[in-house]
Amino acid sequence: MAAARHSTLDFMLGATADCNAVLKALQPVFQEQGMTETVHNWEDHGYLATYIKKNGSFANLRVHPHGLVLVDLQSYNDHAKGREETDQLLNKVEERMKEVFHGNLKRVKRLPAILRGGVIDRYWPTADGRLVEYDIDEVVYDEDSPFQNIKILHSKQFGNILILSGDVNLAESDLAYTRAIMGSGKEDYTGKEVLILGGGDGGILYEIVKLNPKMVTMVEIDQMVIDGCKKHMRKTCGDVLDNLKGECYEVLIEDCIPVLKRYAKEGRMFDYVINDLTAVPISTSPEEDSTWEFLRLILDLSMKVLKQDGKYFTQGNCINLTDALTLYEEQLNRLYCPVEFSKEIVCVPSYMELWVFYTIWKKQTEV
Amino acid sequence: MAAARHSTLDFMLGATADCNAVLKALQPVFQEQGMTETVHNWEDHGYLATYIKKNGSFANLRVHPHGLVLVDLQSYNDHAKGREETDQLLNKVEERMKEVFHGNLKRVKRLPAILRGGVIDRYWPTADGRLVEYDIDEVVYDEDSPFQNIKILHSKQFGNILILSGDVNLAESDLAYTRAIMGSGKEDYTGKEVLILGGGDGGILYEIVKLNPKMVTMVEIDQMVIDGCKKHMRKTCGDVLDNLKGECYEVLIEDCIPVLKRYAKEGRMFDYVINDLTAVPISTSPEEDSTWEFLRLILDLSMKVLKQDGKYFTQGNCINLTDALTLYEEQLNRLYCPVEFSKEIVCVPSYMELWVFYTIWKKQTEV
């Protein structure tokens, strides 16, 4: 399917614009391309001129009386020649504006063109809602499991990226994430009992198994995540997902809630619990949202299976989502047992935003 | 000046679209808003419908016969109510499309809205030409020096960011950059002679001065970069730029070429030369571009003032710009003396792309 290429070019004039002068200056540039013009005049809000070309491309010229001039151009992205023509048209518009408004041009801004409707989707906004484009050049895996949409997309610089229901989870470049959620190299896993909640990409499991633990149990609900990652995220998981059972580890394909309940009932205890399930929900009204209750349930059950001197690691959220982070920390005050926590800010390469990780432990009763 | 808010909403239909059916389905949604319609019918390229509202906002509905439906909406960003109205209109369009084309809707994509023409510019494309939005909330400094435009913009997560002529140079979050261009913690600077070329943000100088060097000489051409950074990039430079001379360092406000020539003539030698001048030029035709000659001149002169067992550090470029990196490495084979090099890939938080750093040293003659 042919994608559309959307180009923008913006001008900020220093003083109030003579809308008519802008229109007059640029009309010939579009008309030279054989584009047909339609003009709407708001009187009090300036002009919108639309230019239509026979080949299916079109341009908008929006002139605001306060001096903002916005040019949009939509064309097909299917051949290099078309892209060149688009760029040449924008160059001509820019030249003409500089000629005519030379001294009065405060800023010119041309953004990289946006590809819309392509087979490969390069736009995966950050957790704090910013528009970012990835250097994705291949759809490696794209399936719907009973739980979520699972995509693995190839980025030139980050390697394969796991995207679950639209959220960038982890790329092969992101050892920094795995290191952070394991305690940033400050823990000794030798001979320890470890429980991983989620973690279907296999990164945490792969790294801990190298450290001679006694036993690592990983509880992942979605077999299809494991299947996709063991094939396409091998820089992250190595061969650890090839078998669900190894000398010092076991992967259970189960919902972690009943497993945690079972372990709590049996009195099974762990040195480390690593929650790699989901980011903190963004909702700021926890009363209305059972997600916070769910999070607290996980935390409470995890504390029940955590040894008195054990540690619980989890990711928090983007550092900019301060409300969500505060709400999460409030939940920590509402657990069945008193806990303390520390946090660390880490740069995870493929996230394009700084991420907060938590270490939580049971408050030691004073002797 | 009121910025414009540009929202997009894209639909990919599974099969060839009945363009007329899309138009018919969405017309009422726009008309309910009191928007006036103009329709262009290409026959072979589908429809463009333009909807104009009295308050100066407008929408485009572009229906492609191959099943791509693109909605654009431009409105003022000046008040929350207007933004809500825009979002509600897009919600209605999305609901209506889902209602009518339920089974045939392959993908729906709504990008974060783009702010165009605002006082604060949040869009600073990466070196490899990708569109990325920063969380910038304040213009801290914006001046033209005789050499370049100097901006310092505040990012919520990265702190203040130095942007030179549109290129993101360094943010207060970017100690990773400074560490990398100093040799990633593997060097012992105690008692050493160090030469920094450029480095006006003061980051390298500040970090090396902590390590008890014998003498650090920094040569920066642009006093205004230093003035801006010493005031607004203090997490990067500390107090090191408050005076151009300290116990073990000196800052020369000069073009580094004549300084290097002088040192070479005098026979002054350094243990480390750190080139923090500019990224590798992106041009792929070095014959036509004197930038490569300039780079080679710097390299040659630097090698002349570098001790036989000294090291030269520099940044390369974005890892994706492989042609530029290859060309750079070719230059290294064309210096007056044989050199060897290694490179390292580093994640610099504010860059939103992986960056290559070089270590270069004189080839040791075999005994």
UniProtKB/TrEMBL annotation, chains A, B:
GO process annotations (BP): spermine biosynthetic process
Phosphoprotein listed as a keyword: yes
Active site: 276
Keyword S-adenosyl-L-methionine: no
Key words of the record: Acetylation, Phosphoprotein, Polyamine biosynthesis, Transferase
Catalytic activity: S-adenosyl 3-(methylsulfanyl)propylamine + spermidine = spermine + S-methyl-5'-thioadenosine + H(+)
Pathway: Amine and polyamine biosynthesis; spermine biosynthesis; spermine from spermidine: step 1/1
InterPro entries attached to this UniProt entry: PABS, PABS_CS, SAM-dependent_MTases_sf, Spermidine_synt_N, Spermidine_synt_N_sf, Spermine_synthase_animal, SpmSyn_N
Name of the top EC class for this enzyme: transferase
Database matches in SUPFAM superfamilies: S-adenosyl-L-methionine-dependent methyltransferases
Family of the protein in this entry: Belongs to the spermidine/spermine synthase family.
Assembly: Homodimer. Dimerization is mediated through the N-terminal domain and seems to be required for activity as deletion of the N-terminal domain causes complete loss of activity.
Protein name: Spermine synthase
Organism: Phasianus colchicus (Common pheasant)
